[in-house]
Structures
1.
Amino acid sequence: MKAIDVHAHVSTRPGVESLMSFQRLLVKYYMGMDMTEEQVTGFAKEPAAMVDDFVAAEVKVFIVGWDAETTTGNPPLPNDHLKELVDEFKDTVIGAFGCVDPNKGEPAIVEAQRCIKQLGFKGLKFHPPAQGFRPNDKTFYPLWEALDELGAILQFHTGTTGLGAGAGGGGGVHLEYGRPVHLDDVAADFPNLKIILCHPGWPWPEENLMILLHKANVFMDLSGWAPKYFPEPLKKDMKGRLKDKVMFGSDYPLIPYERLFAEYEQMNIPDDILEGIFWKNAVRILEIPESLLETKLNENGDEHERN
């Protein structure tokens, strides 16, 4: 095992369909191609093929859900699909962060509670810009309260997003909703709630770092950006005062694992700190049972089987 990826999306058909309106815009923006929904769906993988990507990269993963139905009209990625993947591929897919659309009110709370109590998920993932809400809006505090009571861990997208990029009006995505400072209020009002800031938070990376330094219940995953493009303040602090609060993430299938690992190696990060980023911090922060990890890195950086 090279790493624990705490932020991997689902590339199966339900995953692709849940992001359909954004998928078509992404293809047009990055590839210059107009595709039909049927053509975009052709990018979907069978579950086993998706998991083969993780196995080939020697990573254990936490998959993340998606539900932006209110703002996009796309169907949610069923949380039950995530559960099926965890159950079928538990040697590689070691957990999940479900998703609910906060704008759905009480039904969102009920589904969030089901994710934790019945499906056994580690927590939930939210994307404020795509879902169209500010996390510190008190309208959504009943949802955070319910999840806090259950000991759930919450992931929140921070910073800009490729979703809607290049489209008129950005596909209706409001980037300001992804400003990290909104999560400072949530962290302050729910001091026992573990919050993970997803991505470097650009163009507000210092807000991410500020919150990480100030709030003991806030952590960060490094997904969604190639390491060589990390903002300079992050490159400095992830090797120093924030070395115990950051975790490896890919945003799969966005960036190939081979590229991620190669660029991390080029950053001259001390071995012990890199080991923390790659997997040790995740084990501690997410309270991952050692039984889920069949292999670990030894002192020389080589893999060996657990006894």
Note: The beta strands are 3-8, 59-64, 93-98, 123-126, 153-157, 194-198, 218-221, 246-247, 295-297, 303-305.
2.
Amino acid sequence: MTHKSLILCLGCMPGLFFGCQESETERTVPTTPRSSAPEYEKYEGPIKSISAQEHPYRVKREQMGSRDLETGIYKLDDEGIPLLLIGKKYPVYHPVFLAQYGLNSLEMYRTTGDEDYLDLARRIGDKLPETALKQDGKMWFPYTFKFDLHGYDDQTMKAPWYSAMAQGQVLSLYAALNEIEPREEYVEISDRIFRTLLPESDLEAEPWCTCISEDGLLWLEEYPMDPPNNTLNGMLFAIYGIYDYQQLTGSKEAEDVLRGSIATIKKTIPNFRIEDGYSHYCLRHPLIQDKGYHRIHTRQLEFLASITGDDEFLEMAARFKADGLIADEHDD
């Protein structure tokens, strides 16, 4: 395939570059905060099938964002698969980067009809399982570099580490691939990824990315730590993946996890809001706020409104949008 300036918008992952360090193989897993509570709260309203145009990943594209190879953010391997350069130096198969690149490639294919983009998305779909940890019928996609969350050296994720956000984004990629070219292989891989997002009954199991709080709320953790961070954008991207998988398969288990996740957001979203300011990135670190992530939170709430028809999500999205406009004035 001839490279056609394939480029990627990294608007939902700027924080992944802050605090990134060179690749390591040492792994330290924090003690797990998972609850032995057998049940978790579930959203009881409708779950709707939305049109392709309403899905946040279905964006008509004539280009793939605003970053290209010349930025030094990534390079291509011998198969033409993008490798993210950590610190512009260490090339890694980054699961979120690959998932987004593949999803954007599929939208380029839908927009342009250019088979090269479809071929690239297929090859990313073929490559990801080669990078995965396969365990107990599950498929985990590792981050293979050390990461200091928010730059805090006492909040270090040591390689390899795993994330509900990555699992969800890759799950969305396989659902999108299967939509264009239905394959049993894509569904089987999706099944294995989804199992990583089920609440774990074995509290000593590793890795993990899902926990139940003491008050019976289901959390999908972008950065699995003890205590949990309860990161908003990462959990919502994981919800995208669970929704896509549930729509693909009709799985009752997936619907339960989806309803549990939505219930958690509905109950806790006021805790993330800062009136007339940018929302909290996570609940554990209330001082961390970011203009870009605030806009992502707003769009994600609009997505929840579209799949549930719940006015509370739409109203909260409107409040977030208004808060952001006021915060922008102060920011300027």
Note: The CA atoms of residues 4 and 320 lie 38 Å apart.
